[in-house]
Specification:
This protein is of the alpha+beta class. The protein has a single domain, classed as 3-Layer(bab) Sandwich (minor pseudopilin epsh fold). 35% of the residues lie in helices and 21% in strands. The chain contains five helices and nine strands. The strands form two sheets. Strands 4-6-7-8-9 form a five-stranded antiparallel beta sheet, covered by helices on one side. A four-stranded antiparallel beta sheet has the order 3-2-1-5, covered by helices on one side. A hairpin with a 4-residue loop joins strand 8 and strand 9. It starts with a helix and ends with a strand.
Length: 206
């Protein structure tokens, strides 16, 4: 090759005057070597775009995971409340405050002792499940047929609720959570996990 026949001190001149030789030794002739400023800017821009995209994807994944985790916790506690009400033949209340709804408790009706009076008394009835602080997102409970917002559920001594209800996990800021499971459908004798259908405004059991 031409480069092999030339002395090192001749490379610069050759690269500057002969186009064919310049193409052969461009890497050696480049002042300082390495990347140019434009190349660095392009690479940094691509890295920044990728980081932003990954950040949005992580936030979306975390919201989906938290929503599904919340609804499964509620599902377990409601299932336990129903089973317990059947076992001991006692009324159980699931308290779902409309405001600050992350405060979520299940009570057994034992005030006045021992069988209670069929009404929730948060100062006297015994808490059997306490999820305060464990549910990250807001809880919205509505009657299945009429859409009235509910602040609580009642399981009678046979584990039956009076009106069909669905419970939905919602983001406090109203953001879409895109969770595969984000609601619970409570029928008189069944509790099903599901995905909320915004078009139909109801929980579709999975």
């Amino acid at each position: 090759m031409i480069m092999e026949k030339m002395r090192p001190w001749q490379w610069h001149g050759a690269c500057g005057t002969a186009s064919r030789v310049e193409r052969a030794c461009r890497a050696s002739c480049a002042p300082g070597g390495g990347f140019t400023l434009i190349e660095l800017i392009i690479v940094m821009s691509i890295v920044a775009i990728l980081m932003v995209a990954m950040g949005f994807e992580f936030v979306g994944w975390r919201g989906k995971y938290n929503a599904e985790s919340d609804i499964k916790k509620i599902y377990v506690t409601l299932s336990n409340a129903r089973v317990r009400s059947i076992q001991i033949k006692s009324v159980h209340f699931a308290n779902l405050p409309i405001a600050n709804s992350v405060v979520y408790n299940v009570y057994i009706d034992n005030s006045p002792y021992p069988d209670g009076n069929g009404e929730l008394d948060t100062s006297a009835d015994k808490i059997v499940d306490d999820l305060s602080g464990e549910v990250l997102y807001d809880i919205l409970a509505q009657e299945r047929h009429f859409g009235f917002t509910r602040s609580g559920l009642v399981f009678n001594g046979s584990g039956v609720i009076d009106d069909p209800v669905w419970i939905r996990i919602v983001h406090p800021d109203g953001h879409e959570l895109y969770a595969d499971i984000d609601c619970i459908e409570l029928m008189s004798t069944r509790i099903n996990l599901g995905q909320f259908d915004t078009d139909l405004s109801t929980c579709v059991a999975k």
